[in-house]
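debug: dumping io for the single-chain case to check the tokenizer round-trip. Nothing else runs in this session.
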Amino acid sequence: MMKKVKKDFVTGLFFLVFGGAYFASAFSIGSYKGYGGLNISSAFVPKMLGLFLIFLSAFLLFQTARTWAKLKAAGQEDRPGDARQGLFFKPGEVGSFLAVFLVLILYVALIEKIGFIIMSGLFLFAAIRILAPEGKCNLAVAGIVSVVAPILIYALFVYGLDMVLPEGILG
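debug: decoded output
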């Protein structure tokens, strides 16, 4: 259990820093107003995503601190030589992280040429396949999510918020 607490702490800390940097960099986005009556600049969504990431990371750190305190009070924290200690990440987890990171790089590199809907669908499907536990990935559900989610997100941003997303080969 303590190993999970350590992972959660490092993950929360990493995404707290990343969210802060993401939020700060959103202020460098040029101002672009939507076509509709909404008075939302093009930096609005990135700023909200950065704040959301900061909030979720802080919540994870808070929960981790509470769990660690409970484990410590119960005398269940790891001790040197404890059999529960070992690698911080299992070898398969490192491979999964690197695979998703590679897919993310491809997503960013190709989104302008191929388009938001197609690349987001491919990214979601690949990430679901990579991150799902062995033998637990339902291909039908992964396919449906990978098709429906990008279309709904595209519709929300383009028609609801009057924002521009890459159309790629569909445009």
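debug: round-trip ok. Helices lie at 2-26, 44-73, 91-114, 116-131, 139-160.
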